[in-house]
Each structure stands twice: as structure tokens, then as C-alpha cells.
Amino acid sequence: MASSRKQEISEETRRRLVDAAFELASEGGSAAMSVQAVAERSQISRGSVAWHFGSKDGLLVAVVDEAFRWGIGFITDRLAEAPKPTVDVLLEANFALMGQPKARIFSTILLEALTSDSPIRATYAAHYVELRAVYARYLATVAPKVGDVDALAVALLGSTLGINIQYRLDPERVDRRSAVEVLEHVYARALGRQRRGRATPQ
Q: What is the pTM assigned to this prediction?
């Protein structure tokens, strides 16, 4: 019984540290989630970071895991709620996700993930593979005649990523809503003109 209670406390401590680090990274990237800042935000001692994660890098990997778990769960829930699978539904799910304050983390730590010696590169890349698979499975129901649904998932995910990055860089002049509507129109027309598994050019 005592052992079970200790485990519960340990898991709660770990959760509070990850939540605090997640918030800080969303606000200012990994640089904002110093061990001291995480300790202050979570109201847990600094030593707990090393105890649970080994180092700040270990905590950052846990934050990336949590960010993608949350983000992929958000999108899959939206897809499941839709009465009919369409490309618009997928794009709208992404749009809704990226409108969440927590979703800023995907852009605040992206540059770090692209660095070859980054401690989060492998984890970030593995979760992108998982996310692309979610897209591909969904798109296979939307556009079953497309020959390479994986390539379509890469293109669609890349399009939404580009819109979101541009918005983060220039929120005053980039209208995400308009950009997503254009993307929906382009993909709906392209997929509507499929011939023998490929989109027919204009």
C-alpha cells in the first residue's frame, strides 16, 4: 500500500514537471525551460528534474513526447467526430489544433529539432512519422484512388506546417484562416480530378 502511494506521488511529480516544462517551452522554446524555471513553475525542487529525467535534455524529450501525444490525440478526436471523411475535415482539425496556445511548442522547438546533434531530433522525427501515418490512413479513406497516399500525407502536412510557421513569423500579415481555405480549395479540386490514381493538371 505504501509502495503504491509512493508511486502515485512520483507519477504526480513527474506529471507536474512535464506540464511546467511544456508551458515554458510553448512560451519561449527550450531556452525558457531552465531547470530553475521548471522548478519554480511546478513548485517542485530542482533535484526532482535530475531524479525523474536525468537532465534538462531528458525532460525536453519527455515534453516532446507529451506534445505529440496531445497533438495527435487532438487531431484524431476531431477526425472521429466528423460525419464524413474529407480533406477539409483534416485541414480543419489541423487548423483547430494550431489555434491552441499549447500548440506553439511545435514551432518554438522546431529549429532545435532540425539540428543534427539535437537531443530531441530523433524523438521529434519519430513522432512526425507517427503523425504522417495518421494523415495517410485518413487520406486513404478520403482519396482511395491516389496511388501514393504517403506522398499525399507528406505534401498536406508540409503545406499546413508552412502556413503555421509563416503565421508565427508574421502574425500581423499572415491570415491562417484564408490560407487554410485556399488549401482546402486546392486539394479538393486536385483530388476531385483524379484519373488512374493521379491528379490531372489544369
A: 0.87
Strand stretches in the chain, DSSP E = 194-195, 198-199
Dmax over CA atoms of the chain, in Å, equals 69
pLDDT at 1 over 90: no
Q: Let me know: does 16 contact 44? Beta carbons within 8 Å.
A: yes
| 133-162 pLDDT tens trace | 999 999 999 888 888 999 999 999 999 999
| Fold that domain 2-194 belongs to in CATH | Tetracycline Repressor; domain 2 (1.10.357)
For the record, the C-alpha cell of 135 comes out as 494523415
pLDDT (average), residues 165-191: 93
Domain ranges for the chain, please list them: 2-194
Residue 155 · residue 191 · CB < 8 Å: no
User: Amino acid letter at 112?
Assistant: E
| HEC sequence for 102-161 | HHHHHHHCHHHHHCCCCCCHHHHHHHHHHHHHHHHHHHHHHCCCCCCHHHHHHHHHHHHH
